[in-house]
Structure formats: C-alpha cells, structure tokens
Amino acid sequence: MRKLKRLSVLAVIALLSIILLAACGSSSDKESGNVLETIKDRDKIIFGVKYDTRLFGLKDPASGEVEGFDIDIAKQIAKEIVSDETKVEFVEVTSKTRIPLLNKGDIDAIIATMTISEERKKEVDFSDVYFEAGQSLLVKNGSPIESIDDLTKDTTVLAVKGSTSTDNIREAAPDAQVLEFENYQEAFTALKSGQGDTLTTDNSILLGMASEDDSFGLVGGTFTDEPYGIAVKKGQKELVDAINDALTTIKDNGKYDEIYNEWIKTE
Ligand code: GLU
C-alpha cells in the first residue's frame, strides 16, 4: 500500500515536470522563434502602424479603416509574403509605443513613419529605406518664424514623445522650449489652440496637417534626413530579407510608384 502511494507521488512529480518543461519550451520558442515562419503558419502579417498620421496611417472613424502610404505598402508586403494583400492586421502604435510593442511580440513589424537611426538599431533591425523624409517646422500663416534660426528661448516648439524630432530639435535649437505630446493629433490640436509657436516633425507628416487645415504651412525647408525603414525584432534576418525582397518587387513592378503618387506626389 505504502509502495503504491510512493509510486503515485512519483508519477505526479513526473507529470508536473513534463508540464513545466513544455511550458518553458513554448515560451522560449516564442522568444527565439522565427517570425517569418510564424507569419507563414498564421497566414497573416501583423503590422504596427500609425492611426493618427494623415497620408501615412490615419484611421477613418466612419469606415473604421486605416489609410495611407504606410498602410498600402504594408498590404503589398503582405501580398508578396503571404500571397494576399488582405492577409494583414493593423495594430495602432505611437512613436513611443512602437518599439516596446514589437519587442513584446504583439506585432511582427513596424511600418509607421519610423526613421532608421543608429540609436534604434541597438534595439531593432531595419529593412532598406522605403521613404525619404526630413524634419521641418509647421507654423500658422503669418508667423514670425520662418526657419530654424528664428527659434529662441522664448519659442515653444511642440513635438511628439519617442520621435527623433524631439532629439533633433533640442540639438538644432537648444534654447527653445520643447513641449512633448503622446501623438501627432494631440500635438496639432495644441498648435491650433496656441499652446506653442511651431510644431516640428518630418515634412511628410507636416504636409498632411497642412492639407487638413490650410491656415498652417511648412517653413524653412528641412534640417535633417529621416530615412524611413520597416523595423523588426533583432536577429530576424529571414523576415528582413523577405521584406526587402518585397520592396524590390513592388519598386520593379510599379506598385510602389502607384502608391507614392496616390499619397505623396500630389501633396
Ligand atoms: N520619423 C521620425 C521618427 O521616426 C518622426 C516621425 C514619428 O514620430 O514617427 O521618430
């Protein structure tokens, strides 16, 4: 009888060990796993995109659809990788949340007006450049600010947390006050309500704001280079290669130009 008891205790311990090992195995699989294979098994790519950035990623509240240059490029990448442009899911990111969401595994890749920078390369890997922007200033028409040289200690510059724009402006105009917001919608609302003298980010994003309200315009040209890349978790070479191949294909077959002309050229 005692022997039987001991045997069943041993059996329970063995069973628990198996369950524990299986659990450890699956979580480490997720961490070290091949994201491209996960995408293919799932038959869908999950992209982190902006929901508040006109021309690149903007959610239309009426239809619930997200639209823009980044969105259309993402669909074409889905077409190349999982053979169907509808096999794509969009998750909202902001400049501040995009890298944490990627590294947590909530999204497979970021396509969200994101500049390739040496600093960011420590945390994520990037595709080839798919869009060239540059940082600029947006002001209300008639503003005395005509370029970066007009920013003084009395100027309040609005910017978005987690963007390269905040670091760049502190370097380019060290005396100016910088007020940071969670996203571009909030920053533009603040500019309209007079909380700042100018809003700074990429010319591409500012053009979208100016097209929404023509009492605002860009001034002074660009003062940085902001090459956009698609970010993936570090070490996912197969996924980076697949994305780069997709970019090459859509540049060769004219799809890229079609999308560029639809969103950018006319602006
Ligand atoms: N391209 C810049 C960046 O990656 C500004 C746009 C943005 O905040 O997404 O930070």
TrEMBL record:
Residues 1-22 form the signal peptide. Residues 44-267 form the Solute-binding protein family 3/N-terminal domain. This is Amino acid ABC transporter substrate-binding protein. The keyword NAD does not apply. InterPro entries: Bact_solute-bind_prot3, Iontro_rcpt_C, SBP_3_CS, Solute-binding_3/MltF_N. Keywords: Lipoprotein, Palmitate, Signal, Transport. One of its GO terms (cellular component) is extracellular region. PROSITE patterns: PROKAR_LIPOPROTEIN (PS51257), SBP_BACTERIAL_3 (PS01039). GO terms for molecular function: ligand-gated monoatomic ion channel activity. One of its GO terms (biological process) is amino acid transport. Pfam families: SBP_bac_3. Residues 44-266 form the Ionotropic glutamate receptor C-terminal domain. Gene3D superfamilies: Periplasmic binding protein-like II. Belongs to the bacterial solute-binding protein 3 family.
